[in-house]
Known about the structure:
It is built from 11 helices and 18 strands.
Amino acid sequence: MLFNFGQxxxxxxxxxxxxxxxxxxxxxxxxxxxxxxxxxxxxxxxxGKEARRMLGRTPENIVTIRPLREGVIADFxxxxxMLRHFIQKACGxxxxxxxxxxxxxxxxxxxxxxxxxxxxxxxxxxxEAYLIEEPLAAAIGAGxxxxxxxxxxxxxxxxGTTDIAVLSMGGTVYSTSLRIGGDRFDEAVVRYMxxxxxxxxxxxxxxxxxxxxxxxxxxxxEEVTVAEVRGRDLVTGLPKIIEVxxxxxxxxxxxSVQSIIAAVKEVFEKTPPELVADILDKSIIMTGGGxxxxxxxxxxxxxxxxxxxxxxxxxxxxxIGTGKALTMVDTFGADSKARRVF
Length: 342
């Protein structure tokens, strides 16, 4: 007789994307954190990629929502249903044994928000639920040995938050978390197009524009790229097509980029000098989808006089680290009250 003893699962429960990592299998699921719900029946119509395709295209009775905002649960019931769906999709409908699950959380969440995440994992079918802060998970996923008595610095830029932390001996020495990430970049592009061009665009269009021509530094005339944008003219109410270039989108993103730079400087100011010396001997690792903004690593390197580099497979780093951290629970232990690792 074959027994299913459950899986060791790491979940990157992100504002924009959910990734599921299973031990010995790697990343088995990567789907948008979007749910489509029929308002009349409260039934879920679609989850993940299928729901994302519905954004801005649904009839009046169907609403598409993101149940997580800025790194925390905004709609508990929908988050639990979404998480259950993704776990079942990744592992199959195995009910005899439940799974051991670790979920990452931003470093700045409150105890109430922590409990909400843990409860959502348990309600979704976990036998045991653990939590780990995103910078720690990102460092583990990027291959950094965080157990050594030396300083490492991680900048994790996700969809809803940016987490910056200095790590040493398996713990966080100092960290800060901003409610700024890829979603805030998209919102900045939407506002810029409305303010400067009287053009109304959706978040999906803004994201595509950010990816195509977004930049964290001012492009030279030779580096300028151009993209076509379609939206609704706010003056005439009619469809309108315009061209924007990378210098314009650079201007749109500046406030958010400057906030991240200021937060990195703050972490350096609060870090013990011995650990700063360790960090100067290395590069500062950047993870998360937001770190892929063109030239952000170059901009940070110029501002801080310390080399920054984007981790390999940067989008998956947190999920991989979250899954691997489950094997480290026995080594480092977990808080008995919250089952929070490290």
